[in-house]
Specification:
Elements lengths: L1 H18 L2 H22 L2 E4 L2 E4 H16 L3 H4 L1 H8 L9 E3 L5 E3 L2 E3 L1 E5 L8 H12 L2 H14 L3 H25 L2 E2 L5 E2 L2 H11 L3 H39 L6 H17 L2 H30 L4 H13 L7 H17 L6 H5 L7 H8 L1 H25 L2 E6 L5 E3 L5 E2 L1 H12 L3 H32 L3 H20 L3 H13 L1 H10 L1 H19 L3 E2 L5 E4 L2
Parallel strand pairs: 5-12, 6-13
Antiparallel strand pairs: 1-2, 3-6, 4-5, 7-8, 9-10, 10-11
Helix pairs in contact: 1-20, 2-21, 3-8, 3-22, 5-16, 6-12, 6-17, 6-19, 7-14, 7-17, 7-18, 8-9, 8-13, 8-14, 8-16, 8-17, 8-23, 9-10, 9-22, 10-11, 10-19, 10-20, 10-21, 10-22, 11-19, 11-20, 12-17, 12-19, 17-18, 18-19, 19-20
Length: 553
């Protein structure tokens, strides 16, 4: 540990000297913008729908989600109870009996043709830990800032389309996380390696498309590494540093640098421990953050319970009969769908990396656990944020819907001051709960830290896929990640961060292609897991004479 931290200091301090020079930061930003803008424009290439520009990547995400919802016959609706029970570990005992086929055969009160598994269950974390590790990468600024901007741009009606996109996204998350477990690799030490890199390579290879799968996997891995350094790291540390500087009223020009070093130390302690430590941290931090934030929202709703029908009416009316200034129904729909896609990342493939580390022999068990992610992230937290903003805005006339500047900052009515999404949410909560902005600032920092922790794991898995699984490779990536964290906290490299965001959404293209092709494999895994649950719920016993015993080392 000491050697690791000493190495970090040796590498970063020469870089930090330059990172604080504003002129150099601007030079880096300008140069980066010049060469990366064509790539960013390509990834977010828009198509016109009813006169509105919609990035093609968002269309792909939504079409994929709709396809999976139909193909799996509403998996995002039908199995919610099973999903919750699986996440809470109620079916963990099933890992020792696997049904032999897709159908269960019972003779004289005994189940025949089963396979009994002996040995340790592969994986590193529980279902709940995998879910919280994944949620920690999505619950955060997208919920706090993104929702506020969506409401300000598209009006209250955008909320319904965010909810719908979140519900559809549950199906995408189910498919990618089932495949993540099915095609993961487990080494001799029990460490797992999974995600789109592996199911694109192995899964498509089984279908005679090995070369095509390899190309998609390499492209995905490169984009994932870039996204982990930028949107999953630099942007998060930048926002966390900004919140802490405002909260503590720091005036030192080096405040961002000092905060970055502290954050790097904290994040470094966690990511050195790997997915097991990440899982232990996120299973405590994420529920705590979510409970505090949601509880505050419910307090506001409780105080203003008489206005909840009004808010719901505004949401419904705004969705089906929106003001023409918002672009009509299509304009509001696009805003809602875009914010939901940016919030829950369903279909991006990143979540399957965390979920692939779960302890299970049933890939579909983790797919069903994972689909709860978009529900919590988008349907619950985003919806609550939206209702709070609508109610507080109606009471205090904080801003006018659709009144934004060129940078999509919301213009406050009282001061004509432009503010961002986080600050707008803070103002809304503060108007109902005095000084809650302090709590919200702390929540933003914790959300940012948890996001960095999870994205470090995503990027590391992609790094290992490309450069090998040795300790040197591990250390190099972690050093780079912490360096980028500090640079992000102490600089304002908008073009770099914008490019990395584009890299995250570039992951959608290879991932959705693979998910659609491999959907039949997922269907078989779902039937196998549901049959295992039936065995666990039946009065019949497993026939020991007709059971095949398989030992797993």
């Amino acid at each position: 540990m000491k050697k690791f931290l000493l190495t970090i200091c040796t590498v970063i301090f020469p870089i930090l000297t330059f990172a604080q020079e504003k002129s150099l930061g601007e030079s880096i930003n300008d140069a980066f913008a010049k060469y990366t803008k064509p790539i960013v424009d390509l990834i977010f290439y828009p198509v016109q729908i009813a006169g509105k520009d919609v990035p093609i990547v968002i269309i792909l995400l939504l079409l994929g989600a709709f396809f999976f919802t139909v193909y799996f016959k509403g998996v995002n609706f039908r199995y919610i109870k099973i999903c919750i029970r699986t996440a809470m570990g109620k079916y963990d005992h099933l890992d020792h009996h696997v049904p032999g086929g897709e159908e269960i055969e019972v003779e004289d009160g005994e189940i025949v043709g089963a396979v009994k598994i002996e040995g340790e269950v592969p994986g590193e974390v529980t279902h709940f830990q995998a879910l919280t590790a994944s949620l920690s990468a999505t619950v955060g600024l997208g919920n706090i800032a993104g929702v506020a901007v969506a409401i300000a741009i598209g009006g209250p009606g955008a909320t319904i389309w965010m909810i719908l996109a979140g519900i559809l996204g549950m199906a995408s998350k189910f498919v990618e996380c089932t495949l993540g477990v099915k095609y993961r690799e487990v080494d001799e030490l029990g460490k797992t390696y999974g995600g789109p890199m592996y199911y694109l390579t192995t899964g498509l290879g089984e279908l005679g498309m090995k070369g095509f799968g390899k190309v998609l996997a390499v492209f995905f891995a490169i984009m994932c590494i870039g996204g982990s350094f930028g949107g999953g790291n630099m942007f998060q540390s930048n926002q966390a540093a900004s919140q802490l500087i405002d909260l503590a009223d720091l005036t030192s020009p080096n405040a961002g640098l000092y905060i970055g070093i502290i954050l790097a130390f904290i994040v470094g302690l966690v990511i050195i421990g790997g997915i097991r430590r990440i899982g232990k941290v996120t299973e405590r931090v994420v529920p705590f953050m979510a409970i505090v934030y949601v509880l505050a929202g419910f307090v506001i709703l409780g105080i203003n319970y008489d206005m909840i029908p009004f808010a719901l009416g505004e949401i419904w009316e705004g969705a089906i009969k929106p003001n023409a200034a918002f672009g009509g129904v299509v304009g509001v729909l696009i805003v809602g769908f875009q914010r939901a896609a940016f919030s829950n990342e369903a279909g991006v493939g990143s979540a399957s990396i965390a979920h692939s580390a779960v302890k299970t022999r049933y890939p579909a068990s983790e797919g069903l656990t994972a689909l709860l992610g978009p529900f919590v992230d988008t349907v619950v937290i985003c919806s609550m944020t939206a209702i709070v903003i609508i109610i507080t805005n109606a009471k205090h006339k904080l801003f006018t819907y659709g009144n934004l500047d060129a940078a999509s900052n919301v213009i406050l009515n009282g001061t004509n001051q432009p503010i961002g999404g986080v600050d707008l949410t803070s103002v809304a909560f503060d108007s109902a709960i005095p000084h809650f902005s302090v709590v919200l600032a702390v929540a933003v920092v914790l959300f940012a830290v948890s996001t960095m922790i999870s994205w470090s794991y995503y990027g590391l898995q992609a790094w290992k896929f490309l450069f090998g699984k040795g300790k040197v490779s591990d250390t190099v990536y972690k050093l780079l990640f912490l360096v980028f964290l500090i640079v992000g906290a102490s600089s304002s490299l908008e073009a770099v961060i914008g490019f990395s965001d584009a890299m995250i959404f570039a992951m959608v293209f290879p991932n959705i292609i693979g998910l659609v092709i491999l959907s039949p494999k997922v269907n078989k895994e779902l039937k196998k897991y549901l049959n295992a649950i039936k065995i666990g719920n039946m009065d019949a016993t497993v026939s020991e004479e007709d059971t095949t015993v398989q030992e797993v080392q």
